[in-house]
Structure formats: C-alpha cells, structure tokens
Design brief:
Length: 374
C-alpha cells in the first residue's frame, strides 16, 4: 500500500463508511467513491430498519433492499448488515478497519448527538466532500410536493426553497446540510463515475433503455440479468422530456444528469447514452455494435392515456434482427411503487423531514454556521 488519500494523509488498508443508504442515490455513491480513495478495501456498514426508525424516522426502503443496493455499488468491497447507528472504535476494530470516512455534513442521534464523536475523539475519523444538490430528504420532498420545480430554470429555485421550507415547523433557520439546492453537473463528475473504457473487439455488447428514475432494487436486478447476455452493458437513459411525455405529472423525479450518475454507480454498467431515443433505431444498434437488446417484462411502468409514444414499439428493430430478449428481474419494485409508499405515508415522512431539519438547524446554530433570522 502506498500513496496518500485525498486529504493528504496516508491511505488505510481496510476503511469504513456507514449510513442508512435509504433511497440510494448518486450522492451516496459519490461519498462511497471518495471513501474508496482512502484505502485499499471499502467496508460499508448499513443500519437496520429499527435503528433508522429510532434515530431518524421510517425508512423508505427496508433493510434487505438497502443492503442489496449498497452491495451493488462498484466502489464497495464488503457490506456489514445491522451496523450500529453510532460509530465506535469497537466497531472499527471488529471489522479490522483503520478509520472511518464520512461526508462533511453531520449525522445526529435521536437526542441530537454527533454519531461520529467517539471516532473523532480517537483520531479514527476522516472526511470527504458531501455531494451538494441531493439527499434522501430532498428526494422525498420532491415527491411530497408533487411539483416539477426540480426540472425548472434556476430563476425558479426560490419557489421550491420556500415550499420546502413550509414543511418545517421551525421557519427561523434551515439546516445547511438538508436543504433544497441545485445539483450542478460537470464533465468532471461524469468522468469520476464512468468506467472510461470502450468495448473490446471481442466483447458482446448489450443494450437496455429506460428512465431509471429513483434508481431502485428492481432496476439493479434487471441490469444484473441484462449483463448476463454479454460482456459490455450500455444503458440508454431517456431524456426528461421523453419521460414526462409518457409518464406525465412531475416525472421524472430526478433530472437526466442525476439519473445518469445513479446508473453509472452500479457494477453491471459499462456505459450510458444521454437522452437516448425512445425508439431503438438501426443507427443506435449499428453505432454501438449491439448484439443483444434486453427488456424486463416487470419493468413496464404506467403511461399516461393517449400518449403518442405508447403506440410505438421501441423494440421493433431489435425484434426484426432477432436480438431482442425479455427477462424477469425477480423484483416487483417500480418507481411508481416508491412514490406510492411516500404518498401513502405522507404525514410520517413530512414529520421525519421536519424533525431532521430542526435537529440539524439547532446544531448548526450552535456551531454558528447559520444566522437566526430576526
């Protein structure tokens, strides 16, 4: 082992990261990508449902779903199930980890204490950058608000901020860690997530397409099945406009840049196509030398009535060439089901968001990170 970590200090051998990883998104993945740069092997502890319910509120995904989602991220070497909510030196020693890595935000227990205080006091704590512009709390808020503001121009962001602020019981100040912000995509971010290798001449290229909104266990299971048809998996990500055309309402919940990063974070994926055409054309198949097109028959999500796209078979050319395949992902999870979970438990999640926001705001005020409005 040689070289230094991003913070300039020596790398570890086995390093630890932990969290709820509820509704796993590219912000989680980016934290784990950065954490992997601190050591040779990244061990990730995931809290169980009971711990999350006690300290934070009801999780959107159950623990088995969350364990599987974290294990699928390409920078993760091992997953520790039922990890304690408060990170201790004992836990690090038990799993032979040199230190833990966490983002530069704060995680609090039910009684408002820093969950990493012990490892900080024992110099077993290192820090990476939090990904601005996304959090599970924000994604839940997007679904609860049922707006399209996450797709609007920057001049409208303040309206979104004010509506999100109205969910809080404390309108004096907002947490600097959990708040609405604008995710700003860059080529650097994309390259950090991308594998960066083209298919080898001998690789059998597989192509799939979809919205992949609120990337979930059904998506992961489908991509794992699709990868079995070849050596190199390309995922076509539909544009925001296309998804909204056939889904309507406030879909997609995540912008195309957010959805691309979410997909790129997972082990089966080699490449993505931004704004892929709804219909898989001969040009797409020829350009990428596609030998198999895979679709999941559980993955067809509801479309709005009389949408012109519903009269098009996007797989017609693949079927004509005899390279079309259908698979059963084995999962009934859909983006619509996730939204239903949120809407059906709206009051619980609104309460969860308010409590989290208030706890963080109280700590931030004590740390003089925010000013109290008069």
């Amino acid at each position: 082992m040689s070289g230094n970590a991003p913070d300039g200090l020596p790398k570890g051998n086995r390093v630890w990261a932990d969290g709820c990883y509820d509704m796993v998104h590219f912000g989680h993945a980016n934290q784990l990508r950065q954490a992997k740069q601190f050591g040779q092997k990244l061990i990730v502890g995931v809290h169980n449902d009971e711990e999350i319910r006690l300290h934070k509120g009801p999780p959107v995904f159950n623990e088995q779903e969350r364990y599987r989602m974290v294990a699928g991220i390409k920078w993760v070497d091992e997953v520790v199930e039922n990890a304690p909510y408060v990170t201790t030196v004992e836990t690090l020693d038990k799993y032979r980890c040199d230190f833990c890595i966490h983002g530069d935000d704060i995680t609090l227990t039910a009684d408002g204490k820093d969950t990493y205080q012990e490892v900080k006091d024992n110099a077993r704590y290192r820090e990476c950058k939090r990904t601005c512009g996304v959090s599970t709390t924000d994604l839940v808020g997007r679904m609860l608000l049922l707006t399209k503001n996450h797709h609007t121009q920057d001049e409208h962001i303040e309206q979104h901020v004010e509506r999100a602020r109205s969910l809080s019981t404390d309108n004096v100040a907002m947490s600097p860690w959990t708040r609405v912000s604008r995710f700003i995509p860059t080529t650097t971010t994309i390259l950090e997530f991308a594998e960066g290798r083209p298919p080898k001449p001998t690789d059998k290229v597989v192509y799939v397409t979809g919205s992949f909104d609120l990337f979930h266990i059904g998506h992961l299971a489908f991509l794992e099945k699709a990868k079995e048809f070849g050596d190199y998996l390309i995922v076509g990500i539909l544009s925001d406009q296309t998804v909204n055309q056939y889904k309507g309402s406030n879909h997609p919940i995540m912008s195309i840049h957010e959805r691309v990063l979410s997909v790129l974070a997972y082990k089966p994926v080699n490449e993505v196509v931004f704004g892929a055409p709804y219909e898989i054309t001969p040009d797409v198949l020829d350009q990428f030398n596609v030998k198999a097109v895979v679709n999941g028959f559980r993955d067809r999500e509801s479309s709005i009535v009389n949408c012109p796209l519903t009269s098009i078979d996007p797989f017609a050319e693949a079927k004509r060439r005899g390279i079309y395949h259908e698979v059963d992902s084995g999962s009934d999870m859909t983006t619509d089901l996730i939204i239903d979970r949120i809407i059906n438990h709206r009051l619980e999640y609104e309460t969860r968001n308010r409590k989290k926001e208030k706890k963080e705001a109280d700590v931030a005020k004590a740390m003089n990170l925010i000013k109290v409005e008069e």
